[in-house]
Amino acid sequence: NEFETIEFTFKNNDTENDIYLKPINIKKLVIEGSEKSGQITFSQLESKNILEEVYIFVFSNQRTDLLLRNFNTKKFQIVGELKDALLFINNVKVGTGILDYFFNEGNLKISTIQPLSDKSLLIIKNSSVGKAQINNCNFANFGKIILGSSSLIEIIPINITWCSSRNLISDNEKELKENYRQLKLVASKNEDIHNKLVFEKHEMHSLLKIIKISKGKFIDKAILYTSFYSNDFGLNWLKALSWLIGSSILWYTTIKYLINQREYDSSLIIDEIGKFLIFINPIHQFDKIFGVDPALNFTNGGIFIDGVSRIIGAYLIFQFISAFRKYSKK
Predict the structure, then answer these.
(1) DSSP 297
(2) CB within 8 Å of 317: residues ≥ 6 apart
(3) CB 320 within 8 Å of CB 237
(4) pTM assigned to the model
(5) Element holding 288 (H helix, E strand)
(6) How far apart are CA 321 and CA 33, in angstroms?
C-alpha cells in the first residue's frame, strides 16, 4: 500500500488471498488475473494523481475477481474474455475508454464512469458486453462515443442517461442504425418508454438516409417518406395535426372557390368555422356543408377535391392518433 512508481504490472498472482493495491502516485498500470480465485483491488481514493494508462487483461480461464475504483486515467482499456470472474469498475474518470475485442460471459459491473473532460471518448468495437450491469452513468457528458460491430442487447441499465445523436458515432449509416436498434431494444426490455421512442426515432431516420441512396422499391420509399413527413414515424402528433389542419384549409378553400362561394361576410365567421370543423371529419356530407347537392348541381371539380380530401384526411387522422398514443402503444 501507498507506494510510488512510474509503471506497475501485476499478473499471474499465485495466491487466493485478497490483494489490495493503493499507490500514492503511478503513471501506468497493467493488471491481469490468474486461475486463482482471490480478489485484486486497485484504488486511489484520496489521490489527485491522473494515470496515463490503465490496461486490464482478462481471460476465460481466469477466476480472479478484479475491483478497480476511485481513480482518474487518460486511457483505460479492457482486453480479453471475462467468463468465471467478476470485474467491477466504480467511480472512474476516463479520457479515453476502450473495449476492443472484449467479450463478457461473466460478471461485469460498471458504476459511475465519468468523462475526464468534455472531449473524453468512449470506444466500443468488435465486442460483446453481455449481461453487464451499468449503473449511475451519464454517457451524454462524453464528447464522443464510437460504437461499432458490438452487441449491447443484454446489458442491464440502472439510472442511466444514454448518449445522444450528437455524440454517438459509427463508421457508417447502417452500423449507426443497428446501434440505435440495439439501444431501442435495451430500453424496451427495461420498460424505458421514453428512451425507446427516442432511439426508435433515430433508427428510422438512419433507415431513411440509407434508403435514399439504395435501389429499393419505390413503394417502400414512399411509405417511409410519408410516415416521416406526416408524424415523424409515429412520434410527433403535432406534425400530423398541423398537416391535417393545413391541408383541410386548402381543400375547403379550393372547394368554396370552385362552387363560386367566394363572398366574405364577417357575421358568418363562426358558422364557417363550424362547417370547416365538420369538413375535417372524413364522413361529412358534402351538400350539408356547402349547400350544394352534387347529384343535381355542377360542382366544377369540387366533388373530386372533396373525395381526395377525405382520403388524405382519414390518413392524417390515423397518423395523429397513432402519434398521440405513442406512450401507450405496445
Answers:
(1) S
(2) 244, 280, 282
(3) yes
(4) 0.83
(5) helix 286-290
(6) 56
